[in-house]
Every structure is written in C-alpha cells, then in structure tokens.
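Here is this case:
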Amino acid sequence: MTHEDNGHILLNTGAFIHTAIRGDLAGRTSDLRTRFPPEPGGFLHIGNAKAVYINFELAKIYGGKCNLRMDDTNPVKEEAEFVQAIQDEIRWLGYEWDGDVLFASDYFDTFYDCAVDLIKKGLAFVCDMSAEEIRASFGGIDKAGTESPYRNRSVEENLDLFARMKDGEFPDGSKTLRAKIDMASPNLNLRDPVMYRITRKTHSNTGDTWCIYPMYDYAHPLEDAIEGITHSLCNVEFEDHRPIYEWYVNNLDRFTVKPRQMEFASLSVTNTVMGKRHIRKLVTEGKISGWDDPRLVTISGMKRRGYPASAIREFLGQTGVAKAQSTVDFGLMEHYVREHLKPLCKVVMAVLDPLKVIIENYPEEQTEILDIPYSLDNPEEGCRNVPFSRDIYIERSDFMEEPEKKFFRLAPGKEVRLKGAYIVLCTGVEKDGDGNITAVRCTYDPTTKSGTAATEGMETRKVKGVLHWVSAAEALPITARLYDTLVSDAPGTEAGFVMNPESIVIMENALAEPSLANAKEEDRFQFMRQGYFCLDIKDSENGKPVFNRTVGLKSSYKPTAP
C-alpha cells in the first residue's frame, strides 16, 4: 500500500478533524501546519506512531507541513540517545519533517518573556506554597479550591520574585509561578496551574543556564504558537487541558497564529506494554533486552522484529481516527504484517529442532546440488542452489515412531517427499542408551526427483507429506528466536500486566540452508512451514546468525472491514 493509499484511508476517517481543517483553511488560515512533539524520554511506540501517522498524513493531504519538535522541557527525563532514536524511527516509518528538528528548550527565553507579560497583566503570581500544599488547595470536582495566600501580590513584587527565581536565589521547590485563573472552576486544570518550578538539573540542550523550567501545560501551547502551528492534534487525554491551552494563547498578544487544539482517541493494542515507565522497569530488571526488544511494540522493537513500515502504516490507517477510546486486537496488526510480507519474502528451508535422517541407499560421498525455486507462485524469482546428501536433518516434530491417526509425516514404513528432492521411506530408527531417538533411517527412490517427472519420464506418484530439510554437512548453524505477545492473557497484577512466559522461545541449535549465510539486515524470508523471519543484525555473530520470527504463517484472527 502506498502513502497515497494511506492518505485516502485517513481522508475517509476522522470526519470531525477534516471538517474543522477545511473550515479553518477557508477562513482563519490558508496554510496547514501540524507537528509531532515527542518528549525525548524513551523510544516511540505504536501509540506514538499513531500520532506521527495522523500529523504527517494530514499535512500531506492538505498540502501543508509538519514539524518535528522535541518537547524537552523536563531536564529530569530527557536523554540525547532518545533524540536521535526518535528521528530514526520517524524516518523508518516513511516520513520527513519540515526543516530542522526543533527543540522546546530553544524557546526558553521566549517562555520567560511570555510569563513576564502575564505577570504584568496581573494574570500570574509567584507562590510560596509547597507542591503538597498546592495539591491540597485544589479541592475536588464538587468542591471549589482555596486561593493561595500569595495570590494578590503586586505586579512589582511578582516581577522581582520571578527574576530572582530565574537567577537561582531560591532553593528547589520553594517557589512556583502560577497562572491566576479561577480556583472555583469545574475544570481543575484552570485552578491557578503552576507555570514554572525551580529545579536545578543539567539540561541536555541548555546545560546549567536555567534553574527554572516551564510546566508542560504552559510550554506546549506557546511552542505551537511560536512555530505557527495551525492545528495541534493530540491524544484525547488532553481534552480537559484544552481550556488552559487556549487561555495561555489567547492572553498573550505577541502571537499572530492562534493554534487550534483537537483531540483523537489514543491507540491501545491488546497484549502489549506501551507505558514508558513500565518499559523502563522491564529494561532495568533485565526482563527484556532493551527498548528495541522485538517483543515490544516500540518502533525500534517492531523494526528489529522485521515488521515492514508499510504494514504499520496500513494498520494505523485502518484503525481509523475517532474520539471514542477502543482497544485493537494484536492479531490485526499481525494480519497486516503478514499480508505485506507475503509478496516480499523468498521461501527457504530451516530446521529449528533438528533430527538426523540417514538415507541408506544414497551414495555416501555424493553431494547433489538441487535448483529449488524461491517461490512456486512466482517463478520469476528464480531458484537457489541447495545441497543434498546422504545425511540430512528434518524437524523432530516431523517424525513419530508410533504415528497418530492422520499423521502424514515420517514414520516407520511411511513415505514422505523431501521438498525439492526425493521421496523417502522410513526403515527404522537409532536410539541412545536411554531410549531417545537419535536418528531415523530411510531409503530414497531416485526416480522421484522433484521437477523431473514431466521431462524425463520419471515416477509421478504422490505422497501426502512434504517436509523441509537441510543437508547435514553444508547446513548453516543459526539461532532462531520465536516471539509471541509480551503480555499474557492471564489476569494482571498490580502493575497491570503479566508477562507471557512463552513470549520468546530460543532455538539455539537450529540449522538453515547455506544460502542464508549471505542474509542482510533488510532481507526478509519465509522459512518453509515456520513463519516469516529476518536477520537480527544486532545479535548475529560471524558464522552464527540470529533470525527473529516476525510472524507465523497463519492466524486464527479474521479481520473485519474497518
């Protein structure tokens, strides 16, 4: 699916957003400018990707532009590592922002000047109450708050105290700058919210220049206004914050563009963890390998797992844009990943749990090179050379000494076809001293070579079982990691989720056909009968590549029309 297709999907959803934008473009503004403003305190996840998708696609639909701004107003959380990761993730998704990457911290001087403007208007004051006292003064939904005893300080005193706050005269947490709005407002966000706090932390961008930092609700609307953002599209959780957003913008006279905030429902996906606090805890406790662990639905994790960016975009488009919150089945995302991988992947053979097969009547020293098509459906993809010899490996689960009914794979006295090779007949087994099967013995029928019957008059009989295999001598040792959802369907704990104990299964003794020795990071493969896999470049070593299973071949999930 192309970007244009994605745009058509978005155009047909979120009617409330389109109606507003079209009305604004015909009236208050002629150019659309959106923005994606992540806090650089972690990697982006699928929920953030929804906001990326909406902002960039809307800009594209209406011929506008989209900014990328790092909302780095909290020096406690931000890290330079995340700034770069966010840029890489957005580009991987297929989007490019307008101009340079912007930083909220670059506007700190303007934020300060705007605060001074509000003080001069009598709309902000310096408060000496502690954070606990301020929270206690807010009251409740059915109870008005209590005004600060410092609320009626003079403009001159507030200007003096605020300047001294900036100059570092007061201890951390001893004073705040608050907006003077309405302590009886039914919206608690309007009850004299804090605009600035004193925090002596080194900032990743401004160093130790500042010891006062703006609060999000104050900085965010100013950032949008400074950049000329016409439409601030954000998560529905900020709907109750819209009045304070508008209050700041409307009470500051220096901005010609008055951005309009609109909210959409966030994206929730079953069996996933998206909260940065929870992910950080999992990383710290060593329960996952990092922010790019393939079990996570972070952008980096999904990329490492092998998800195509095009599949993620289609998934995001098909989930639609709405006001009402909903949770999307993880299987829907896997469905689009699978659909996008089908036409991309070459089919190869890998044995994840090897069981040796000895073909007794095949010449011991002979190695035959078979030309096996990458795809039976698309012969233009060509063939690869696969060695075949007397000793091969098959999946352990493809043999049963005492077969169940309708078991059509290998068993004593049963025949199967080896994919692209010959029909073999099981003649016996070898066992160790504990009775465990160590090898299966077979004979092969040389007249049953795949692809030769029609041209050479060879045997044309058919068998029900077709097995994948690898030649023992030439097999490439690999590690295969099989992933499932990170979160179990079991009842949650106080943390809100239970880790799925089978979220990762590691097959360290897997073997693959030698063509996979040349696999590159961007390559995707269908391991015959196993699923779709990609090379994990981060953990692979010379001579022992690691392959991550992106998704299985089939699913019981049946998507419904959006």
